[in-house]
Design brief:
By secondary structure, the chain is of the alpha/beta class. It folds into 2 domains: 14-180, Creatine Amidinohydrolase, Chain A, domain 1; 195-314, Creatine Amidinohydrolase, CATH 3.90.230. It is 38% helix and 14% strand. Strands 4-3-2-1-5-6 form a 6-stranded mixed sheet, with helices on both faces. Helix 1 crosses helix 2, helix 1 packs across helix 7 and helix 5 packs parallel to helix 6 (156-163).
Length: 321
């Protein structure tokens, strides 16, 4: 179960088992042969250039969808025919516990993530191919991009490509379609993080005053979603724009990092969302910094609001726009 704290949402590992089942069921309707193996690589722990500082880890999205694993540098294999899945975890020296805490055995991860088997890996180029052979793999399905699908790569990529038939085309469209159609459990997580993010936006609207820096609003949002929702990450770069900067599509990035004063009489456009268990939403709102619209601002606001409400009223399952 994924849970950050007492007041945060519990996400059962059965959600990811169901995702794997959906994926296998969908793949079995395609032309992939029996005992095709889906092989995915999780996100890697990266360090900031020329330092010993780790960049805060966030799991690779496809891997997260299939396994719900929080740790970096992992791999996962799924037998499309049987649904059996194997998780590969890096084998860390016992001395690492000084920096990383307790070093757990494979049984810990098997129970934590509800997978069929867990293998420690000290040499991915030999251990993973050996396990794939034991699974009687006929074809290895990988994503179109990534280390595993790189036939010119070294290590695991070179070893697998030379030992097995590789298919880098069949998996991507199927798993992408599966991820588009959310399960009830996934929708519940998105509702949770949307509610947490919405409350954070409302609190910012209550507190903000002309004279604030834009980054102070961003900082408050990040504080609120982590304090009240357990969201260590935001879903995308926070856009805390004001005045004419509201028209800059990618405001909030490295070239314009929410670094202007919010002036009296201007509008704030805040596009920010938290993230929980790698799920999030997209929330944008616009409001006057001083709490009162000018007549022109009010007119444009109501035009957009009416368009928004009209789209909501017309939305139907299966509809096209």
């Amino acid at each position: 179960m994924f849970k950050i704290g007492a007041n945060t949402m519990s996400v059962p590992m059965s959600l990811f088992a169901d995702n794997r089942k959906r994926l296998c069921n969908k793949l079995r309707t395609t032309d992939v042969p029996e005992h095709s193996i889906v092989l995915l690589q999780g996100g890697q722990q990266l360090q900031q250039d020329s330092t010993d500082r780790d960049i805060t880890f966030r799991q690779e999205s496809f891997f997260q969808w299939c396994f719900g694993v929080s740790e970096p540098d992992c791999y996962g294999a799924i037998d499309v025919t049987s649904g059996r899945c194997v998780l590969f975890i890096p084998k860390l020296p016992v001395e690492y516990r000084v920096w990383m805490g307790e070093i757990f055995p494979p049984s810990h991860f098997q129970a934590k993530y509800r997978v069929d088997d867990v293998m420690f890996v000290d040499d991915v180029s030999t251990v993973i191919p050996d396990v794939l052979r034991s699974m009687e793999a006929r074809v290895i399905l990988t994503l179109e991009r990534g280390l595993i699908s790189d036939r010119e790569g070294l290590g695991i990529a070179g070893s697998i490509c030379s030992s097995f038939k590789m298919d880098t085309e069949s998996l991507q469209p199927v798993i992408s379609e599966c991820r588009v159609i959310k399960s009830k459990g996934e929708i519940d997580i998105i509702r949770y993080v949307s509610r947490v993010s919405s409350e954070a936006h409302k609190e910012i609207m209550r507190r903000i005053r002309p004279g604030w820096m834009e980054y102070q609003a961003e900082s408050l949002f990040r504080h609120l979603v982590q304090t009240h929702g357990g969201g260590r990450h935001v879903f995308y770069d926070c856009v805390a724009s004001s005045g004419p900067r509201c028209a800059i599509m990618n405001y909030g990035g490295a070239t314009c990092p929410n670094d202007h004063v919010i002036e009296d009489g201007t509008l704030c456009l805040f596009d920010m969302s938290g993230e929980y268990c790698c799920y999030g939403s997209d929330i944008t709102n616009t409001f006057p910094a001083n709490g009162k619209f000018t007549e022109d601002q009010k007119a444009i606001y109501h035009i957009v609001l009416e368009a928004n409400m009209a789209v909501k009223a017309a939305m139907r399952p299966g509809g096209w726009f």
